[in-house]
Amino acid sequence: MKSVRHYFALLLLLPFLVLAACNNKSEENPRQLIAGESSKVWKADKETNAQGDKERLSNTEEEQRMEFYANGTFQVREAGAFQGGRWNYNATQKELELTFDDRQDVKEVFHVQELSGNKMTLHAADGSTMKLKTD
């Protein structure tokens, strides 16, 4: 009789266990974390040099904003000037690739060390690191 009650209790709990398992978020889309539904604005938060020492952000860097659009374009706003280009996220390599409109022959590639809805850490080829946060 005890085993029947345990079996019945298990049957009652089974739908809740299934719902809880289905409710777990799958891994978020990195492109959406970078650009949001249509666009997302990022600003520099912290910077370190290749040796890992903290660097003070310049006034220009503090004022600079980078807006990523879901269509794969971006725009950098700095001191009233704008620069645009195209971006791509390589999920396999965890790399953010930037190509500026005025420098089509140059592709800047950053290794993405951290990516969430409001934080992104980019590691440059020279060893420096830039931590960004949403604006």
TrEMBL record:
Signal peptide bounds: 1-20
PROSITE patterns: PROKAR_LIPOPROTEIN
Lineage top rank: taxon: Bacteria
Keywords, ordered alphabetically: Signal
Protein name per the record: Lipocalin-like domain-containing protein
